Fold:
Amino acid sequence: MLIEILFDILSDFSLLYFYVSIILSIFCAYQITHFSLFNIKKMNECYTREHHSIQARQIPLVSVVGEVIEKRDWLTNKTKRIEAPDDDAEIHSFSLVNKRTIKRGGQQWKNILYSLSLKNIALP
Structure:
């Protein structure tokens, strides 16, 4: 008789145990997932802050390196100009050779540099 009562009670509660176990497993899975996502979000924020602080610390270094490179380039150009031989005696490739003289433009140039139709118009 005692066994029959226990069997009846357990058979009636078996579905209840099943539903309660499903609800508890869903609740535990949610808590574990929530805890994991919270930790991932916190680690991501820490990584982002660290990355931004590293970038902010590197900004002055980049500008200093740029200034050093500009000074080095300026010094290199100056020394190369001093070392370079004077080439004033050579005829440059952009010179115009006339039968009588070499004309390089400027005040020596006598030809009209604009269209004759624009001769009376004041050019800006």
